Amino acid sequence: MFPAEAKEIWKTYGKIQALKGVSLRVSSGEVLALLGPNGAGKTTLVRVLVGLLSPDRGEARLFGGDPRCWRSRRFLGVTPQETGFPPTLRVREVVDLVRAHYPKPAARDHLLEQFGLAAKAGRMTSALSGGERRRLSVLLAFAGNPNLVVLDEPTTGLDVEGRHTLWQAIRTFRDEGKAVLLTTHYLEEAEALADRVAILHQGRLLIEGTPEAIKARVGLKQVSFFAPGLPELSHAVRIERVGDRFVLYTSDADRLVVELMEKRVAFRELEVRPLRLEEAFLALTRGEA
Amino acid sequence: MIRLVFVHLKYELLALLRMPGFLIPSFVFPGMFFLMFAAPYLKTPETALKTTTSFMAFAFFTVVFFQYGVGLSQERENPWVPYLRTLPLPAGVRPAAYLLAGLLFALAAALLVAAVAGLATPFHLPAGRWPTLLAALVLGAVPHGLMGLSLAYLTRPRAALALANLIFLPLSYLGGLWMPPELLPGWARAISPWLPTRHWAELVWAASEALPWPAASLLALLGYAVFFALIATWAWRRGTG
């Protein structure tokens, strides 16, 4: 039984097909990062998985049950939008209100300590700063001591320290054998945290696997150097230039370098390295791979 | 399930109590209006009884109509509500807590009117009639709460407050919640018997005098309740996809 599972999900809003047959599984003990450009369908997929939306076709499962049924959500934690806390309730009260829904919630003082809000426990939520609201929102996802947390763009608006705290919390949580589903715009975050990455593009699942596997699947290497100019090259799929510095993407770095030498390109400081996830992601969503 | 209703009730009350913008108009105004505009003219126990109970219905009306009409329409745009739907929260819990909070506030506002009347007028209601009076108040609150709910689902939040006032004030006046219908001008007396507020008042007056409840008013209130329940359901469905 998987913490969360999407089976062939289709969802249309008016004329927009947000999801076109997406299947995805989140397993225990893993961090799955859902990536994709804006409008790719990430938020829709998450909303279907947590029971906020009904799919047109296909099936969503939370711990084997229907996410729209409250019993299926007893081990699920979700981040609220930080703009929506009840303005006249105190931080402590909002935490207790959320904890009250779960069979074995986490201890309140421990949560406040862990997310750096212990000093703000008596504040009204309307008196919190932007960063504090963000921390509270992430805290609430963990308040019920869940087995699956779903974090939508968790580090947007967090300061460096807050991001560090959150990353630590996510790793500890994963190491306890629990599951994390996060959507993010920061590929750096996905590369640092995710055991598996799923890339959505135009409502379809483009690719899914470990960050390494995705980079390998794209199969491109990056070759960079300084040179005064370049002739036509047959082994580069894309060329970027900033001043004298060239960055070339290629599926065969060895032959590209041989070609550069044959065509007598006067390169300096040649570097060959595998793609970062970000570059693999861009290559995939541009259809170069 | 029951425990969660009380948890939500507790925080709902707490949040409302800290909101003077809600508290003062809905809780204090009915008692204050009564003291200023009605109490000085109530010289006999009979007139005091009728007008006090009318204002108690007015107090109930204020709370249920504004809490559901305006309150709910503002809540609709708040992202906190979809978040609550991701918690392991059975579907009926929040409406039940919301309903109970509204009833408690309405009761408090109505009892404030009665307390003012006890001090400033010859108002006296025998102990045995209180339960039936409260039952009449709660019963009449049902179609009016549903009316507020319909308004909440039919309008944009900004429009809701203005529209609520536009409906609320004439209904109170024409229904006889501020002065006995006999004292209304002729045109108003012609409209009055068709309004839900008037039927509510008829129940309340009957209860306060230990008379049987008029069947026509009971039927009318039931009809209004069904009507607004249908509108609210239709408008709610229209708003969710």
How many β strands of chain A by DSSP?
13
Shape summary of chain A? elongated
Task: Note the beta-strand portion of chain B.
Answer: under 5%
Q: What is the name of the CATH architecture of the largest domain in chain A? A: 3-Layer(aba) Sandwich
Give the number of domains of chain B: 1
CATH topology of the largest domain in chain A: Rossmann fold
Helix percentage of chain B: over 70%
Major sheet attributes of chain A = 6 strands, mixed
Helix content of chain A: 25-40%
Main structural class of chain A: alpha/beta
C-alpha termini separation of chain A: 34 Å
Net shape of chain B = globular
Overall number of strands of chain B: 0
Biggest interface: A-B, 26 and 23 residues
- Rg of chain B (C-alpha, Å): 18 Å
Strand content of chain A: 25-35%
Helix tally of chain B equals 10
Number of domains of chain A: 2
SSE order of chain B, one letter for each helix or strand: HHHHHHHHHH
Oligomer status = heterodimer
Query: Could you name the ranges of chain B where pLDDT drops below 50 across 5 or more consecutive residues?
Result: none
Would you write up a description of this structure?
The complex is a heterodimer of chains A (289) and B (241). Chain A is α/β, with parallel strands linked by helices. Chain A is 30% helix and 28% strand. Chain A has helices at 42-49, 91-99, 108-114, 130-142, 160-175, 187-193, 211-218, 253-262, 277-286; strands spanning 4-13, 16-26, 31-35, 57-62, 76-78, 148-152, 179-183, 196-201, 204-209, 221-226, 238-242, 245-250, 268-274. Chain A starts with a strand and ends with a helix. Chain B is mainly alpha-helical and 241 residues long. Chain B is globular and about 55 Å long. The model of chain B has no long low-confidence stretch (mean pLDDT 91). At the A-B interface, α2 of A face α1 and α4 of B.
Short key terms for the protein model shown above:
A: 289 residues; alpha/beta; Rossmann fold; Alpha-Beta Plaits; 2 domains; 6-stranded mixed sheet; B: 241 residues; mainly alpha; 77% helix; globular
